[in-house]
Amino acid sequence: TLAGVGHLLADAYCYRQGIDISWPEMPVTVEDRAPEEGSCSCSPRKRLVSFQGAGTRLVRTQLQQINNGEDIVVNVVDVRSAALNMTDASWESSHPIKLPFTELMRESEFALAPAGHTPCSIRLYEILSFCAIPVILADEKRLPFSELLNWTEIAVILPERDAAKVPEVLQKIDAEQRCAMRRKGHEAFHKYFANISANVRGLMEVLEAHADQGFAPGRVANKTAKDFSMQSDMLRWSQLAQEDFRRQRVALRWLPGLAKEVDADGDCQASLSEMLRYSEEQHNRSVAALLDWAFAAISGSAKGALSLETLAAVKKQVLRGFSWQIDLEGSFKKADDNGDGLLSADECSAHTGRSEIFEVVVQLALASSDRDQDGRLGRAELVAEALRWEKLDGNNDSFVDIRELLWEVQDGLEQRGAAVQRGF
Q: What angle do CA 412, 414, 416 make, to 5 degrees?
């Protein structure tokens, strides 16, 4: 979920906590002068609070009422003549167009970050770069990387209706608290918002947190996911999708501290061959983890081998009354490469095609674990530490069926490899 698109807290966008990620915009005008003390200074500043920007939303025009031209400066201009809307990120802060804004930021303890064209504004990140404290007035804004940052320690967050109360609220914050907020905000800017590498660092940390915690989406979130999937299928070959693949490639190449399991040659870049190799390794791990679970569900042990008699007995017990379209005996004999009458994990993993022995074993394991016999597994029924639930539950319905269990094995490698090649 992009932080700058639409009303992120409104029902129409159905932000799903623990699933979607609020992504930061890139700032345009940032502090490029070296800090006085090597980090954010807490020296007192000339002005209490300031703002300079276009009158794109009601809250911005309301903020004009608190302007006194001295310690509170609020310059709201017509959006059609706002020079800052035409600035280039490559221009230094001393550029004639940027200079008034730059000087105002350097003079201010606090700076206003009201909603703009959307609930978001690049002003938030620009304020942090100047070691000022953001005052956020954007009721529908989903703050970026809130999984990592406690924004109440970095910014003052007020409802838009309280625009007139800004001076009163800020004057109650003492010097010690202001110093702490300025330094935490400045640190957050350079860690997560200063450039694309910082953005990707934040993204990876949030993804890691999501993977550890898992999620349980509701009905509305599931509908949103389904709608998004349909739209993604329609856009798969569009120019927008191609541009997205290009950006993924750039992000991968510039990602600092690239995981060693991906960057095999240690050159801090991810080549196509490395990504394909890594994708295949992850696929093989998934196959092994799924087989360990299946063997344990059928025989009580992840190790060892399965006989045809064991599989037939399980089939008779758990699939009574169900239709069975797979030739158990034929698929078993086909996979029993050494003819010893036992099926090993290696033999099973070599026959992962449709209606082959791998599918038979997984189907029987599912049926054996399906305590309520609804044809699918809930979290309590699928007990396997090596199987990552959020990866298996492809449609986010909090259940895993046979199609989802087999997707990684039967379709995942081919489709993921094709996606990686398109990305490069």
A: 60
